[in-house]
């Protein structure tokens, strides 16, 4: 009975996931192509017309509502593996796990969950499951190499498994080498069940080593410092002061690793930003741009007003000077009255 319920629940989660992916693909295709051109949905061609989009969206919404009466996520502990099915399963990381169970978990498997949602809970794995050394991803929409940057947030990792199903990133020929390069500080032992060799690590460094160097050299120093904790800031200052530079970039990286016991300073600049966070940043940049534009416009207006007043003064000054001299001569023409006026002014000031 339990196995049957589990099978039905996973099947329901898989269908909800597929419907959500169809919705995403449909919305993307409608945004990119408003003309009557075929779009790809889960590998099949379908002609989508603007007037039909609302009805299709209604159908998809109805399908999700119909499935929601069943379980929408599943949390399963089997041996030393914690299986998380569906986005709702991530909430289990906030529960109070027994010390025995938490210490037993060596593998955490994510299925039918958006990677961007997984990123938000990676830090919790450090404290919840201190002995976790293996992460598995299946149907998580891993689509870009930079997404692997987020895995640097975990405290340790010996194995990584990325199932081709629902993770297009594995179609990239060099994806394993990028993982080895970016997560070098973990000293990964296996990727997708295949043992990592020393030659793999060397090749990864040769392929992507320049990437970290370029990324770190393009960032201003204040931005670099914001990426690190206090100990890492001291290391960065150590590099800026020129200590150890004689050995070149490669030796700097290795010495940096030895001092920190973690990821190198240059690699730390290769991070991943989720879509929501990226949109927040764009909105923040937009607001800053508007503020700066208004501020500069006000400065320009103030400068223009000052310049206009200065030009007016230059035109009026000759006549003003003549009038000032004339008034002064008239005022001191009668010495007695002028002296009385001066005494009166002094008396008024004292009072």
UniProtKB/TrEMBL annotation:
Give the top-rank taxon of the lineage listed in the UniProt record for this protein. Answer: Eukaryota
- Annotated region described as Disordered, given as residue ranges: 244-265
Question: Per its record, how is this protein called by name?
Answer: LRC49 protein
Specify the taxonomic lineage: Eukaryota, Metazoa, Chordata, Craniata, Vertebrata
């Amino acid at each position: 009975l339990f196995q049957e319920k589990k099978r039905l629940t996973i099947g329901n989660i898989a269908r909800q996931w597929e419907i959500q992916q169809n919705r995403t693909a449909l919305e993307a295709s409608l945004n990119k192509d408003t003309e009557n051109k075929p779009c790809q949905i889960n590998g099949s061609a379908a002609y989508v017309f603007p007037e039909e989009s609302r009805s299709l969206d209604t159908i998809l919404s109805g399908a999700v509502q119909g499935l929601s009466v069943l379980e929408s996520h599943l949390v399963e502990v089997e041996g030393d593996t914690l299986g998380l099915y569906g986005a709702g399963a991530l909430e289990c990381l906030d529960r109070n796990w027994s010390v025995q169970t938490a210490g037993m978990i060596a593998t955490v498997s994510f299925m039918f969950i958006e990677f961007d949602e997984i990123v938000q809970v990676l830090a919790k794995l450090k404290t919840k499951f201190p002995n976790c050394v293996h992460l598995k991803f299946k149907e998580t929409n891993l689509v870009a190499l930079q997404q692997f940057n987020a895995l640097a947030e975990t405290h340790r990792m010996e194995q990584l498994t990325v199932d081709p199903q629902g993770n297009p990133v594995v179609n990239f020929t060099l994806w394993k080498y990028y993982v080895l390069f970016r997560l070098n500080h973990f000293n990964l032992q296996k990727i997708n069940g295949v043992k990592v060799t020393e030659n793999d690590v060397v090749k990864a460094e040769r392929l992507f080593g320049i990437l970290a160097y370029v990324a770190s050299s393009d960032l201003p120093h204040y931005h670099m410092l914001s990426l690190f904790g206090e100990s890492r800031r001291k290391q960065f200052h150590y590099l800026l002061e020129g200590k150890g530079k004689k050995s070149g970039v490669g030796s700097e990286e290795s010495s940096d690793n030895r001092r920190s016991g973690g990821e190198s300073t240059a690699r730390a600049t290769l991070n991943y930003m989720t879509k929501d966070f990226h949109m927040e940043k764009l909105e923040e940049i937009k607001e800053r741009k508007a503020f700066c534009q208004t501020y500069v416009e006000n400065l320009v207006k103030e400068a223009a007003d000052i310049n206009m007043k200065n030009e007016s003064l230059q035109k009026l000054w000759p006549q003003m000077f003549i009038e000032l001299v004339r008034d002064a001569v008239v005022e001191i023409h009668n010495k007695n009255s002028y002296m009385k006026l001066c005494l009166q002014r002094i008396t008024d000031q004292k009072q």
